[in-house]
């Protein structure tokens, strides 16, 4: 059975036409080479002109001859059969009302955007994997041998595993106390008390931190029914600033493959507020500016800055 794509095509003439195209390209190249070389290899000006004109005419005749041969072979090639096995997709380009149902053009555009999205997603994934280890805070001198092995990376982790991670972090920082509770099922809520400086309510989804609320040490963090108040803001502007910075830190410390490292890095960053009202700004050297201490902590060096000084 003949191939449906080759019906109506003279394959022998098609092969000769390809050779004729190559010959035509060679002839055109010789014409440009002749123009590039110019008048050479003759002692007198008249001899150089005659040789150049003769050579140029010969090359033009060769181009004309090869072009005529290609036109002759193109008429012998024939046209391929229009009965291609496109099935229903072959009818998309025959839509008579492009303004009302431009399905074919939309499919082409969607295909292009899909390819672009896949390409850029691959580039972004490669860059994020290269920078993943740089997005954690200082490891408090923990050696590589003592670091725990990689843990499960699924979104839903066993509550026992979450409790174990929080317990290890609580033991790492003696000046920070962490109380874990689950008032609404399996999702954990942490009440972090940092010395006598501040209290932080951390709402977690499995081992991923969802949001934080920072309040003063003497402020009430419970509702009337005895549950942690995860909606009310602090009454003090300084702790409202720290809450905004903690939200920014959550966006910075992102490593889905190792959520325990994210929690430990965030707690390390939060521990740097132990001297919130004592540490001077690393840029201006002052403790108070516009009535506020330096509330910003660098994500890598943990140095203190005022909001205006860190920029």
TrEMBL record:
Keyword hit for Protein transport: no
State whether it acts alone or in a complex, and with which partners, per the record: Component of the Mediator complex, which is composed of MED1, MED4, MED6, MED7, MED8, MED9, MED10, MED11, MED12, MED13, MED13L, MED14, MED15, MED16, MED17, MED18, MED19, MED20, MED21, MED22, MED23, MED24, MED25, MED26, MED27, MED29, MED30, MED31, CCNC, CDK8 and CDC2L6/CDK11. The MED12, MED13, CCNC and CDK8 subunits form a distinct module termed the CDK8 module. Mediator containing the CDK8 module is less active than Mediator lacking this module in supporting transcriptional activation.
**Molecular function terms from GO:** transcription coactivator activity
A UniProt-annotated Pfam family: Med27
**Species of provenance:** Myotis davidii
The compartments listed are:
Nucleus
Q: What is the lineage of its organism?
A: Eukaryota, Metazoa, Chordata, Craniata, Vertebrata
Its keywords, alphabetically, are: Nucleus, Transcription, Transcription regulation
User: In its keyword annotation, does this UniProt entry include Transcription regulation?
Assistant: yes
Family, according to the entry, reads as follows: Belongs to the Mediator complex subunit 27 family.
- What's the name of the protein? Mediator of RNA polymerase II transcription subunit 27
Any one GO biological process: regulation of transcription by RNA polymerase II
Q: Which domain of life is it from?
A: Eukaryota
Any single GO CC term annotated in Swiss-Prot or TrEMBL for this entry: mediator complex
């Amino acid at each position: 059975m003949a191939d449906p794509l080759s019906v109506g095509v003279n394959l022998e003439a098609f092969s000769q036409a390809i050779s004729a195209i190559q010959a035509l390209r060679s002839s055109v190249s010789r014409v440009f080479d002749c123009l590039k070389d110019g008048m050479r290899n003759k002692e007198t000006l008249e001899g150089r002109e005659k040789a150049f004109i003769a050579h140029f005419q010969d090359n033009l005749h060769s181009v004309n001859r090869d072009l005529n041969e290609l036109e002759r072979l193109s008429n012998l090639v024939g046209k391929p059969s229009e009965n291609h096995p496109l099935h229903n997709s072959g009818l998309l380009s025959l839509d008579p009302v492009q303004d009302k149902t431009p399905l074919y053009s939309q499919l082409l555009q969607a295909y292009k955007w899909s390819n672009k999205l896949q390409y850029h997603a691959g580039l972004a994934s490669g860059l994020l994997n290269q920078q993943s280890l740089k997005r954690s805070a200082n490891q408090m001198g923990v050696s590589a041998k003592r670091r725990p092995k990689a843990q499960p990376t699924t979104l839903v982790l066993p509550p026992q595993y979450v409790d174990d991670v929080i317990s290890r972090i609580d033991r790492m920082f003696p000046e920070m106390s962490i109380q874990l509770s689950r008032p609404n099922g399996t999702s954990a809520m942490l009440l972090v008390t940092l010395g006598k400086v501040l209290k932080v309510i951390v709402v977690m989804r499995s081992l991923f931190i969802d949001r934080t609320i920072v309040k003063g040490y003497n402020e009430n963090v419970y509702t009337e029914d005895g549950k942690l108040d995860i909606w009310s803001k602090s009454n003090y502007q300084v702790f409202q600033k720290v809450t905004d910075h903690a939200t920014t830190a959550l966006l910075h410390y992102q490593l889905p493959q190792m959520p325990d490292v994210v929690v430990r890095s965030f707690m390390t960053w939060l521990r740097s507020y132990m001297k919130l009202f004592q540490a001077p700004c690393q840029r201006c050297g002052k403790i108070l500016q516009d009535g506020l201490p330096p509330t910003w902590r660098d994500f890598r060096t943990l140095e203190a800055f005022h909001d205006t000084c860190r920029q």
